[in-house]
Structures are given as C-alpha cells and as structure tokens.
Amino acid sequence: VNAFVTQYADFEKSGRGLYIFSKTKGTGKTYLACILANQILKYKAFSIKFVNCADLVEIIKSKDDSDRDILSSIYRCRLLILDDIGTQDGSQPWINEALFRLIDYRYREKRPVIFTSNCDTAHLTCDERIAQRIDAMSVPVKMPEKSIRKQMAMRDTKEFLQSIMGTKET
C-alpha cells in the first residue's frame, strides 16, 4: 500500500491499481482508498474520481446531460476509486455490460483504479470478464477481518456520553 503512493508513477505507467477487500464490513477499505488518493494528490495534482457502484448505476441510468458529463469524467480521470464493487445487482445484464465497458476502457487505456469490495475477485457477482480484468489490472490488498467502524463508534459514543455527563473515566 505504501508503494502505491511512493511509486505511483510506476503503478500508473503500468495501469495497475489496487483491489482492497475484506468480507467484514467496516474494516476501513473505503477509508484507506481515500487516504491513498489524498496522499497521491500531495505529490501530483491531477483528476481523481470517487464513485460508489450503486451511484455509478444511477449515473449510467440517467438521461440527464450533467450525469453524462460526470460519466465521461469517470472514464477519463487519471485515477478512479470504484467503491463497493460486487454490491451492484449482477442479475441485470445492462448493469454488468455498463460496468464491463468502464473497466475494460480503463484496462485498455492503462488508467489505474482502486477497487474496494466485500469479497475477493473469485466471488464477485458480476460478469467473469469484469473479474478477469480486475485481476489483470490491480494488486490485491486483503484487509483484516475486524470492523474498525464498530470500534470507532463505540469509542465516540463513550467520549460523547462522558462529555455531556461531565464524567471522566480513568
């Protein structure tokens, strides 16, 4: 993961991104992807887009001109973060086809993608062509199966209650 930031030029030249995954929700996959993007922006100012797969489906469905512009920018950006791949409805062929077109375009143009998912590529519920391209264009990063979101929520709740009740726990 550190090499993705420090040697980003090499990753970009090869068109390689990351596939960050864990079965457990709340492990920090999306958080890590955003940290990586922000770190890269510290060294290079260029276009990075973040889109959740469910939102991408809505953008693709839309007939609105502004959504067409957004979709075009998702295709063209230098680094794309595609969040929660595998959560889209794979039973609808048009969704798989639209997702395939985007990933295939970025694969052929050597434009890196950071993917986040709740499963490894072997268990993605999408067209096999999509999983094969993801494997070819990304380095897998397995996250620990421990929810940091839950831990952070418990800590924040505890701190909040202490602040409003005026108690300090030692």
Radius of gyration equals 18 Å
Q: How is the main sheet built?
A: 5 strands, parallel
Query: How many angstroms separate the termini?
Result: 36 Å
Tell me which oligomeric state these chains represent: single chain
Mean pLDDT across the residues is 90
The total count of strands amounts to 5
| Order of secondary-structure elements | HHEHEHHEHEHEH
Q: Low-confidence stretches at least 5 residues in length (pLDDT < 50)?
A: none
Strand content: 5-15%
Major sheet strand order: 2-3-4-1-5
The structure class reads: alpha/beta
The total of helices stands at 8
- The residue fraction in helices comes out at 40-55%
* Principal-axis shape: globular
How would you summarize the topology of this molecule?
Elements: H1 2-6, H2 8-14, E1 17-21, H3 29-43, E2 48-52, H4 53-61, H5 65-76, E3 79-83, H6 93-108, E4 113-117, H7 128-137, E5 138-142, H8 148-165
Parallel strand pairs: 1-4, 1-5, 2-3, 3-4
Features:
alpha/beta; five-stranded parallel sheet; globular
Describe what this molecule looks like in 3D.
A five-stranded parallel beta sheet has the order 2-3-4-1-5, sandwiched between helices. 54% of the residues lie in helices and 15% in strands. It has helices at 2-6, 8-14, 29-43, 53-61, 65-76, 93-108, 128-137, 148-165; strands spanning 17-21, 48-52, 79-83, 113-117, 138-142. Helix 6 packs parallel to helix 7 (128-137). Helix 6 (93-108) links the parallel strand 3 (79-83) and strand 4. With 170 residues, the protein is α/β, with parallel strands linked by helices. The mean pLDDT is 90.
